[in-house]
Design a protein that fits this description.
With 289 residues, the protein is mainly alpha-helical. Helices cover 71% and strands 10% of the residues. Strand 1 and strand 2 form a beta hairpin.
């Protein structure tokens, strides 16, 4: 039988594998339209969408490492691999932003070749937009359910792709209507949205990378001191890594209690913190008072 970590890894990998197929279909459609129409904005949109496929492949590799059990070199486990994978997505987002801005500025300064867009091209781009909206919604929902940073970060990138595709469609329609500046201007606006998405992913990863406290120490103290036999709780530390929470604290018990009784109190504190506050690993030190 799989452990909870292994079951979670399998669930995340199933999501990534399914979305990889959807993203490959989106890239193929946009690439065909881009080459057929000669639209650089559509081709740059295809490049941006291809990052989603790369992210899925990266995620399939990362979550396998993240699900490994703790070992001598990594006593807290390997869940931070997911956080590193989320930051790698920010790198790919940065590449997308650079390509969007470079293409848009080039069109504004030098103009672009006239393009001809057929109704079927717009319809196919609309189809890719619908696919990306579904992918972003589904991946965000599964990421929240599985507490997966890699899925949440990739969902944010796919949401940025939704804005990119919307801008491309609007830009193509306005360009066809004679407004040649519309495509590059809208592309620059979209680049701002993509940059904001990357910043949000970084801010989401920072608490894990900086070992920010998983919960307020006062809440941990309250749960610990509610356990019968605990006089006080102090030296409280907590941190989170991906979907896991770790806590370490010292409790004081009456000096006259036996070692066996103190051990039972310690077990009760560990159980209470796991049950009430969702900690996965709890280390409790006991001192007489």
């Amino acid at each position: 039988m799989d452990t909870p970590a292994q079951a979670r890894e399998r669930a995340v990998r199933r999501v990534l594998a399914a979305l990889l197929l959807a993203n490959l279909a989106v890239v193929a459609i946009k690439a065909v339209i881009g080459f057929a129409t000669g639209s650089l904005s559509v081709l740059s949109d295809a490049v941006a969408s291809s990052v989603d496929g790369i992210n899925n492949i990266l995620g399939l590799a990362v979550v396998r490492f993240a699900a490994r059990d703790p070992d001598d070199d990594h006593p807290y486990g390997h869940a931070k691999f997911e956080t590193l994978g989320a930051l790698a997505i920010v790198v790919f987002l940065s590449v997308s932003i650079f390509e969007l801005v470079r293409t848009a500025i080039g069109h504004l300064l030098h103009g672009g070749e006239p393009i001809t867009v057929r109704p079927v091209d717009l319809a196919l781009l609309g189809l890719t937009l619908a696919i990306n909206i579904w992918v972003a919604w589904y991946e965000r929902r599964r990421g929240q359910a599985l507490q997966s940073e890699i899925l949440l970060a990739d969902a944010a990138h796919t949401q940025a792709d939704v804005y990119v595709t919307m801008a491309v469609i609007i830009g193509l329609m306005l360009t066809q209507a004679g407004f040649g500046w519309a495509d590059p201007v809208l592309t620059l606006i979209v680049a701002v949205f993509v940059a904001h998405t990357g910043w949000a992913v970084v801010m989401q990863a920072m608490p894990t990378l900086m070992d920010q406290a998983a919960l307020d120490s006062r809440e941990i103290r309250r749960v610990a001191t509610d356990v019968p036999g605990v006089e006080s709780a102090y030296a409280i530390r907590s941190r989170s890594t991906g979907h896991q929470r770790f806590a370490e604290l010292t409790i004081s018990v009456p000096g006259q209690v036996s070692v066996e009784s103190a051990h039972h109190v310690t077990d009760a504190v560990e159980d209470a913190l796991r049950r009430d506050l969702g900690f996965h690993v709890v280390v409790v030190h006991v001192e007489p008072c």
